Amino acid sequence: VQTCALPISFNRKIGEYSDIIETQKGYYIIQPFKTKKPYIPELNEIAAKVKKIFIDKQVSVLAKTTAEETKEKIAQAVGISFIEAAKKLNFEVKQSDFVNRNDYIPELGPCSELKAIFETNTGETGPVLQTRKGSLLFKATEIQDADETKFTEEEQNKYRQKLLGQKQQELYSQYMRELELRADLRSNLEELRRSQ
């Protein structure tokens, strides 16, 4: 359930259906099947979790600071390459194949979360990026333009259909919102419950 639907689900009784909830990913009807009363846990219940969160945060901050310092040292290294400078500083250097925005880089995560990679020019050292597994310092060694010949007519049609479907969904959603506003709908759920 998306975050925007959570308040609606918390206000429901067990077995009670929500109204239709529209989100970016579709439409939902929520029916709670179990509830748990809110409480403040004892420290011994959450101590390990809190400790892990704190340590992970501190490690992340330290990794980013170290990566920023390393970036400065590499920039000051005159006459040697990025790779040589990083190795001299005892950092592991890896090189990836070409990636696009939809790719997944092992050990780093989805490229969609690493947007700066695609905003860095050839030969430039990019900004320090936080990944799921730590900090990343990178240099764009080569940029390859998209091969438009591979964008076949069949792929163009698939893309066109996808965009058309999205546009139709947007128009349908807008139409439904306008209908709801004009219809001046009122809920009679309370009256139905009282009558049962």
Strand order of the largest sheet: 1-2
Assembly form of the protein? single chain
Largest sheet: 2 strands, antiparallel
Q: What is the CA-atom radius of gyration, in angstroms?
A: 26 Å
> Which structural class best describes the helix and strand composition?
mainly alpha
The portion of residues forming beta strands comes to: 5-15%
Residues in helices, as a percent range: 40-55%
- For the secondary structure, the number of strands is 6
Mean pLDDT: 82
**What's the overall geometry?**
flat
Count of helical regions:
5
**pLDDT < 50 runs, ≥5 residues:** none
Question: Separation of termini?
Answer: 30 Å
Instruction: Give the ordered list of helices and strands.
Output: HEEHHEEEEHH
Question: What is the gist of this entry?
Answer:
With 196 residues, the protein is mainly alpha-helical.
Describe this structure in words.
With 196 residues, the chain is mainly α. The protein has five helices and six strands, in the order H-E-E-H-H-E-E-E-E-H-H. A two-stranded antiparallel ribbon has the order 1-2. A two-stranded antiparallel ribbon has the order 3-4. A hairpin with a 3-residue loop joins strand 3 (104-105) and strand 4 (109-110). It is flat and about 85 Å long. The two termini are 30 Å apart. The mean pLDDT is 82.
